[in-house]
Amino acid sequence: MNPHPFEIFQLSKSILRAVIAEGYQDPTPVQHAAIPEVLAGRDIMATAQTGTGKTAAFALPMLDRLQSREPGNTAGAGPIRALVLTPTRELALQVEESLRVYGRYLSLRSAVVLGGVSMESQYKALRRNPDILVATPGRLLDLMQQGRVRLDQVEILVLDEADRMLDMGFIQDVRKIVSKVPLKRQTLFFSATMSTEIVALAGDMLKNPVHIETTRASSVSGNIAQKVMFVDHANKRSLLAEILKGKDARRVLVFTRTKHRADRLSRHLSDSGVSSDAIHSNKSQGARQRALADFDGGRVTVLVATDIMARGIDVDGISHVINYELPNDPESYVHRIGRTARAGAAGIALSFCDASEIMMLQGIEKLTRSPLVADEDHIYHSETIASLHSPRAGAPVRPSQWRSFGPRRSARFR
Prior knowledge:
Helix content is 35%, strand content 15%. It is α/β, with parallel strands linked by helices.
């Protein structure tokens, strides 16, 4: 019998059994590079394209290390031994689910704490003494201040979507949390984008980290067909309706910049006979989970979302990502369109660009180092707007200048 490809990592039999049960075959490049380093106990700073298995790249070796050695001082009975911080509730839930799947044959316990749900249910989860805690920063700080969570025996700290965790919306909360974690620990940073400024901010949190870059930071999968559609703002809704009539638009994720626009657009689509729902930070966590479940289950064809869904949504078969409005920062473009073409599949990313968004488009192209191909084959194409994008119209803005185009919201309200 041929050995399973994941056997090269010498993971425990219980973890390998779970990997095989999930149908995993060849490890992805980030898994090949990161798993041995994590197993060796090294700090990691890894960047890899979205949809390439970053969660398994840290979760599998973390589970292996935790189950293979006795915990340290357990005078407090059931210490939290690993902490995973994520920027959004959806990503926290997804990571914790992955930990349960990969650790199904282990005795390790995990729990998740996040905003928007009952504190009492999370008190109950913490009373079960989880070995691994997955958390969003705001809710974790609340629980720490109540004396419900202690981090003084954490052995492994993970920042998932590390670039977002270390930007100005989260950095203060993250630093407060990290200050309560032992200095003697293993620290793992994983993300699809990582600016030099963020790397500098993270320097004091890691010790001699191994830098893993399986693809250039902020690069986009070659399986995603990216196009820009120059269109007047007043015609965007009609252009979207035309695209959704296509037979290939099977499961479509549409991004807007504002919660109000997401709600209005979803209502318009529903009134037009398109099964649609909206998801954003003003929705209750229950409503967000229902919308995501309906989208994943095919009961909703179109999910209209703000950038809380740019990270942490792993739904199979998303045929199109449509940027109805370009994002407030170019990094979010990379994360948005990475929701399609997951795990080697193919996908389509369409970006609507009106006259006010030309500089945003230039910022995206500068970051990804790849000009978007213009799709002029639609009745709403604006040659006037397209001409503003020509090289003669002005040099692209630098990504470091980008945040002047839009405010970043406080992390505590995500």
